[in-house]
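Hey, resending since the last one bounced:
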Amino acid sequence: MSDGLLTVENLNAYYGSAHVLQGVSFELREQAVSIVGRNGMGKTTLCAAIMGITPPRVSGSIRFEGRELVGMSSYRIANAGVGYVPQGRRLFPSLSVDEHLRMSARGNGSKRWTIGSVYELFPRLAERKRNGGAQLSGGEQQMLAIARALVTNPKLLIMDEPSEGLAPTIIEMLIETFKQLEQQGLRILVIEQNLGVATSLAERQLVMMGGEIATETTAGELAGDPELQRRYLGVEPVAR
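The structure tokens again:
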């Protein structure tokens, strides 16, 4: 059986002697995937391991289009077609919107995403293109973080807590944007605590507990089962 777009097998990750990820395995093919879980379950460590960000120290296998990523540097992983929107945006306060995009822009394959096309996707960024990262609202910063990843022209977009700290109206706008991107062929792996966002973006749901994939379920089952939500996530049920 051939690999999917992203195949993670028996992935272990360590910070010093702390064993954070413990035998994580999953595959992403055509469907978007959401990974949900409480704080401290290893979700951000998983992102760091996939993107080659050190620490952590990792063992196991992470393959993208059949190519082994473990041991590769972060910039080579990005050049291979993996885009990353980190938790907390991580923008440069002194760089303008336009400078962020020009610094990141590159073409892979068809060069679907250019600086001009992300300004069309996010008109607010075009209006603010001369403003520094620190001068943007939370929603604008998240738009810029997504746009910065898009201009690398990825085949897979990994997003770590994209809704964190955003107003509900901005979250709704981003959900519609992500759905549009997926319809255009971009594959998405989203890491989220917000169940409404996670279940809106992906039908396939993986639940992390204690550094492991505790269960796999669907958006409908997770959103509709309060006991499942309490057992694995420790939260009260949410409305979709």
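The beta strands are 6-15, 18-28, 33-36, 57-64, 67-68, 82-85, 156-160, 187-192, 204-209, 212-218.

Sorry for the duplicate.
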